[in-house]
Amino acid sequence: MTTSTATAEQPETAGSAVGAGSQTLMRGLDLIEAVSHEVLTLSELATKLDLTKSTTHRLLSALVDRGYLAFTPRAGYRLGPKLLLLGTLAQAQADLVQVARPYLEDLSASTEDTVHLGILDGDAALYLDKVPGRRRITISSRVGDRQPLTSTGLGKALMLDHSPSYWKDRFATEQAASAFKVDPVLWFDRMQGYAACGRAFDLEENEDQVRCVSAPIRDAAGKIVGAISVSSAAQYMSDDRMTALTDEVRDTAAAISRELGHEPTPR
Fold this sequence. Notes:
By secondary structure, the chain is an alpha+beta fold. The chain has helices at 20-35, 42-49, 53-65, 81-111, 153-158, 164-176, 184-197, 239-259; strands spanning 69-72, 76-79, 114-121, 124-131, 146-147, 200-203, 210-218, 224-233. The strands form two sheets. The protein has a six-stranded antiparallel beta sheet with strand order 5-4-3-8-7-6. Helix 2 (42-49) packs across helix 3 (53-65) and helix 6 crosses helix 7 (184-197). It starts with 19 loop residues before the first helix and ends in an 8-residue tail after the last helix.
């Protein structure tokens, strides 16, 4: 979406803090907000936003093509189906964080370690929440981070239901860009074991000297919609302790899943 040379609109100056691309984005958002209250025609929108009709039409066409707006002949422009989808996803994310938060706090208090909540975002793990532990260590993750799937416990838990071919494809792609190299046969064998027992480990594959235990969260349909993890320094995460934490992490994930309507089958 590029803007034409300004005519009746006010052009941006060379020293403007908002660039041309940002100005176009803001105008597009203004159009979306304008039709959120009522259906408006091209002329009405151009007048309302003080834009030329040609610029308004160009922006509207792009928004309609992407599904953010919809056009009804002889009526005008209204919100489109993409916004319905995004609204549903945003609500689901907000609900997940709200539902999970007390469980994350309890798990962090019980283990004294850092606890994360994340979801699958494309081909990455998106961290939605974090409760720091009590130990004097630093876990570098932040809410909003997007991390690899195949080297993080959270990421592995999120893709436990994916096909083995997806695992292999993601592993090959992410290993090509990773500084932490892992034997592919060993990694795949571990993934099969993780899937069988419903939890996953990070064995210092994503961050040096940091290990974690993770388990998936499921919705009413049994679909994985998120995951939690307990992370700590390797000195506090021996193999025996990670095994001992497995039930607690899985049970916490199962409790969150029940809040979302999931009825787990007995292990």
